[in-house]
C-alpha cells in the first residue's frame, strides 16, 4: 500500500481518502499475493499538491478521519 501511495505522491497528487478497502491486487496477480503491485481505486477526492511554484501550503481536511495521518487530527 505504501508503494502505491508513494507512486501517486511522486506524480504530484494526494488521494485524500485512503482506507484499506480502496486497495486491490490486479486480477492476473490474485494468486500471487506476495507481489508488491497493488491498485488504488476511487480517485474522487484526489487532487494535485505540487504546483509549478512548489507544494500547496494549506489544504482543508477531506476524507476518512479514521485512516488519516495523526497530524490531521489537530486541525
UniProtKB/TrEMBL annotation:
SUPFAM superfamilies: Protein kinase-like (PK-like) (SSF56112). One of its GO terms (molecular function) is ATP binding. It comes from the Eukaryota. Residues 1-75 form the Protein kinase domain. This is Protein kinase domain-containing protein.
Amino acid at each position: 500500500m505504501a508503494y502505491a501511495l508513494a507512486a501517486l505522491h511522486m506524480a504530484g497528487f494526494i488521494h485524500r481518502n485512503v482506507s484499506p478497502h480502496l486497495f486491490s491486487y490486479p486480477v492476473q496477480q490474485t494468486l500471487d499475493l506476495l507481489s508488491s503491485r497493488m491498485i488504488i481505486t476511487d480517485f474522487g477526492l484526489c487532487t494535485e499538491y505540487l504546483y509549478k511554484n512548489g507544494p500547496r501550503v494549506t489544504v482543508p481536511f477531506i476524507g476518512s478521519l479514521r485512516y488519516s495521518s495523526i497530524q490531521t487530527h489537530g486541525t
